[in-house]
Task: structure prediction
Amino acid sequence: MMVELRKVKQGDMFRRKPDSNTLYIRHHYNRKDQFGPSTFRCTFIYEDIVRSIQLTPSTIVHVD
Result:
């Protein structure tokens, strides 16, 4: 099911594409400030290394 990232609850998992193997976890919200737009911090684990990305709330993601 495709939804906006803002509708995914904190701590829930999602995929950026429907056929992707990478599962992301949605974390805290960063408010808009002088350094950039509002974003959500999202992490994923790749070969025992935790990596994070910043995605805007309107990003379309896929949840199961």
Notes: The two ends are 6 Å apart (CA to CA).
